[in-house]
Amino acid sequence: MNPTVKQLLSLIGTDIAPWHLAESWDNCGLCAGNPEWPVQKVLVGLDPGMPVLQAAQQWQADMILTHHPLFITPEKTIDFSVMPGLAIALAATRKMAIVCAHTNLDKAENGLNDYLADRLNITVTRALEADSPELSPSAALTGLGRIGTLPAPVSLTRVADQIKSQLNVQPVRVVGDPDLVIHDIAVCSGSGGGLIPAFLTSGASVYVTGDIKYHEARLIESHGKALIDVGHFASEIIAKDLLTRRLNQAVSRAGFSLEIRAFAGETDPFVSI
Hints:
Elements lengths: L4 H12 L12 E4 L8 E5 L4 H10 L3 E4 L18 H10 L2 E4 L2 H5 L4 H8 L3 E8 L12 E13 H11 L6 E3 L5 E11 L4 H5 L5 E5 L3 H9 L3 E4 L2 H5 L2 H16 L4 E4 L11
Parallel strand pairs: 2-3, 2-11, 3-4, 8-9, 9-10
Antiparallel strand pairs: 1-4, 5-6, 6-8, 7-10
Helix pairs in contact: 1-10
């Protein structure tokens, strides 16, 4: 049996990334489409941009599931010739729903930050900014970012080299003493500047994230700590693999018939020349 968009939204919220975890400013869930549309094919990507939309149209997908939202702030004008209006028009004419799991996936236990930590061989102990840890022990594992430990203490330079290999990214931006010994480590997928105060009081020696600004880097440096900025894209492109695997598992448990494919054509908008 093929599920509807509404049934898939329920599966995602129940089995993968609870919708209530989304930040108040965020726009998660159904960005465009009809909850009652049936779904036979889902294309998973990072961004609901033209490469993903064109691939979904060519594959005749019924739903696009991305990490980043189609839009976050309200649109005053929907111009069908430019994004996001172009995507909305395509969704309407092709009956192709656009769904995103953003900060709810970032914060969820076994979500994107846990997956990032696992890719970096980090044993997670708690969230960097936990959601109400006083409510229950498990709540300490729900929230933005993660704190954990490496298998053995190594230098900052060695950690950076390992991360470049683990995330397949070149180069990375590093702040701190190259010989600083790292054992406790903090990570945050995407843009992690807002969690710097939490990192500085966390006990971790290095912060792995993306989109760090100059003065934020100086603040970290002034505290004798380290930073590895891998970039927004490298820290979150892995979301499509996580979503594909987790959705396949949830669909199988629910007994639905569905084709799910991860889009392989997205690239970082930034290049080094």
